[in-house]
Design brief:
Keywords: DNA-binding, Transcription, Transcription regulation. This protein is of the alpha/beta class. It is built from eleven helices and twelve strands.
Length: 341
């Protein structure tokens, strides 16, 4: 047997964290079967594991789930993505597949980040495309394995996609403000571009025009879509004492909740002075004061549908290219004031 490889060197080789590799080596719980297999198989390949360890490589079919990060301002450790991943994991397990999660940063090498993509055990690829550009998605399309994109669509490439109906979500959110008598509706827009937010902007504008309302450019504020970023930037905006609209539509709940915190600290009452509505329905919406009215995105179901579609491509050799839009629905809480009464 060769000299055992260090955990940190093996982690770098496989694109995993050193703690994950260490947990596998020490046979600790909390590691998926596919990740455990990846580490142990590589150790066998490098002759760094003793036969006495009792491990024999076994062929286990798995699905890759690639989490792509361009800037990491949208894709992160948030309730939205944790619920999405939960749906994927449960659906893979119920269908007899292991799930191999890989994190891929812009500019990373495909062969290094996805070492088993061309192995016979890898049956397909789920790709979180939230922060992707067309060029990013095209690189994965060239891999030639069954692939389904999540959370962003590109008409120029023939890949199946599961996406949120963003225009419907933004339109319904804006319509709810209008229904409650608001005609001066501002927009808390992400400072970082992703397709979802562009489509939500279109939905917001369309609903304003449909109701004969002007688009108040002076009340459109671009905020970093993170808790700290949106909060600090909204505080800075409020320091200049701008005239406020009666309501805001926000690209997502994180921006809405962070801006709401800044507004309250500045002395504004929610919803008495300013009403706010978001999109996603993350758990924190129920815990704030007041609870946030928002559009619910069935995140768990998005994951389930993505696996279902991928398995259709794997098992039936389906050649159709589908885009499946997930409908959202309003969750009324207490962050919107009714100006009609």
């Amino acid at each position: 047997m060769n000299k055992p490889i260090k955990a940190k060197d093996l982690a770098q080789l496989l694109g995993l964290s050193p703690s994950t590799v260490s947990m596998v080596i020490n046979n600790k719980p909390g590691i998926s079967d596919s990740t455990r297999k990846l580490v142990l198989d590589k150790m066998v390949e490098l002759s760094s594991i003793s036969p006495a360890y009792g491990y024999k490589p076994q062929a286990i079919d798995f699905i890759y789930f690639v989490i792509f990060k361009k800037h990491g301002k949208v894709v992160g450790d948030t309730p939205f993505f944790s619920q999405l991943i939960e749906g994927i994991e449960q659906s893979c397990k119920s269908n007899g597949y292991n799930l191999q999660i890989a994190y891929f940063n812009e500019g990373s090498d495909l062969s290094t980040s996805l070492p088993l993509i061309h192995s016979k055990e890898c049956k397909g690829l789920l790709l979180l495309a939230t922060e992707m550009s067309l060029a990013d998605a095209s690189a994965f399309a060239s891999l030639g394995c069954p692939t389904v994109l999540l959370d962003s669509a590109f008409n120029e490439i023939a890949l199946d996609t599961i996406v949120i109906n963003n225009k419907q979500a933004a339109g319904c959110a804006t319509k709810e403000l209008i229904k409650n008598g608001h005609t001066n509706i501002g927009y808390l827009h992400s400072a970082f571009h992703i397709n979802n937010f562009s489509e939500r902007k279109d939905g917001y504008h369309r609903e304003l025009r449909r109701n004969g309302l002007s688009i108040p450019a002076e009340h459109e504020y671009k905020l970093t879509p993170t808790v700290d970023g949106a909060y600090s930037e909204m505080k800075e905006i409020l320091n200049h004492a701008p005239e406020m609209p009666t309501a805001f539509f926000a690209d997502n709940d994180i921006i809405a909740l962070s801006a709401m915190r800044a507004l309250k600290e500045k002395g504004y009452k929610i919803p008495e002075d300013i009403s706010i509505i978001g999109i996603d329905d993350i758990p924190m919406c129920e815990l704030t004061d007041p609870p946030l009215t928002t559009m619910h995105v069935p995140k768990h179901q998005m994951g389930v549908q993505a696996v279902k579609r991928l398995l259709e491509k794997i098992n039936r050799n389906s050649r159709e290219v589908l885009t499946i839009e997930i409908f959202t629905f309003l969750v009324e809480r207490q962050s919107i004031r009714n100006l009609n009464v």
